[in-house]
Amino acid sequence: MIDVQKQTICVPIIKINDNGIANTNDTIVKEDRVNIYLNGSKIISTMCILKDQDFHSIGFLMSEGVIENVDDIKDIEISKDGLNVYINAKINDDNISNLFHEKTLTSGCCVGVSANFEGKIIEKFLSQKVEFHLEQIRHYISEFQKNTDLFSNTGCTHKAMLFCDDKSFLSEDIGRHNAIDKVLGKAQILKIDTSKSLLIVSGRLSMEMVIKCAMHNVPVVISNAATTALGIKSAQNLGITLIGFARNGNMNIYTHGNRIILPQG
Amino acid sequence: MIDVQKQTICVPIIKINDNGIANTNDTIVKEDRVNIYLNGSKIISTMCILKDQDFHSIGFLMSEGVIENVDDIKDIEISKDGLNVYINAKINDDNISNLFHEKTLTSGCCVGVSANFEGKIIEKFLSQKVEFHLEQIRHYISEFQKNTDLFSNTGCTHKAMLFCDDKSFLSEDIGRHNAIDKVLGKAQILKIDTSKSLLIVSGRLSMEMVIKCAMHNVPVVISNAATTALGIKSAQNLGITLIGFARNGNMNIYTHGNRIILPQG
Description:
Distance between the termini of chain A: 43 Å
CATH architecture of the largest domain in chain A: 3-Layer(aba) Sandwich
Number of helices of chain A: 9
Shape of chain A: flat
Order of helices and strands of chain A: HEEEEHEEHEHEHHEEHEHEHEEE
Radius of gyration of chain A: 19 Å
Oligomer: homodimer
Strand content of chain A: 25-35%
Number of domains of chain A: 2
Number of strands of chain A: 15
């Protein structure tokens, strides 16, 4: 259950709508700068909502290939104010230097992804034969479409939901990248078998989202929004089923549709 | 006029909608990695649509405070393939080191902004007394709401429009940060007096968007979407009028509403 109070502020606004002009209050999502420390060194700061910082940090570091296996994590500690995450883990130092060797602002503009991507991910291909019936996917999408308290109150958050067997895990953040890292990090820490899972996200699917799925072995990713040319190319190359514009019962299957069981006739 | 052909690709998809299941084609926006070189050194790469790369580069470098005045630009050249932008300009070397001294992934997740922001912008305050009638703003918003060919074809782009007197300038990109940098860079190169202008953007207004406005002396920024707590705080501190959820005739005025002339009674 999200503590909306803690993650939002209330501000006075002038509201102009069909009822006229009114001085009222509005609920606004609150972001903070969280610092991630790995083995005593600050790796990066990220603007995000103060929730699931541990999942977020692990998800991000594994998405970036800095931590290669959840079992390599020795301990995680979040400071009392929630602004610092301290992780001790076994890592390959090259992975950290890769993280920022190429400064690329991607569409959403996560720096670093492309570095480890070009360094290693490009060889990866998710070959698992997991299949989902169209009706099952439609059910997952309808679950995804239920608004959270935080979104209902602010209209300013992205969401990611991971579905695995009969379980589902939800994360949200001001950043679509963060929401995905949070839910994937949570799955890693809970030792969920993501190789059989399906991820649904809000916001567009650009290359870096697809790469996060590959890094966490998630074979199917679905968005309510569009995808880009590199999103499709990377999904094709990485063996990921990519579905876009998933709204109500409708959707576009862009890559590896063999994992979707369509009704006959 | 946007060359939709050049900025999109056509891919085969499985389309599932009320009409059933069909194999068809879909138009997808195409992003490329553009490298920005300043005085012979590569500053950064950015994933974007291959359009207005010169405006984009200048807008970004001025948003980041690396180039402080458009008159400091000696020359700009775009490589034939459109993937490299070469700029020669008078700069303060500290501004470049600031650009990446703090690695922060913001909500959208533009790295670097916060560095120069904390270094200098925080002292800035836009005090211009420019005013806009509500009906004028509603007219600008209705202009903004007209879809571009690229968005109509792909549903995957963000847009930024700058309104100044009777002129308007439009840019779009896969990234909302890029769209803003492109339109502001265009205004700088065309020597538009942005201190009397109004910017309307798609996508949420987080701190870094507000900072871009401050760097380019744009006093009023409007979004069809939400804003964040730091978006409001920075707009308050920087003297920027921030309006969100601007849809049809409705809007929320969050900060410095004194620039908006509301109808009496």
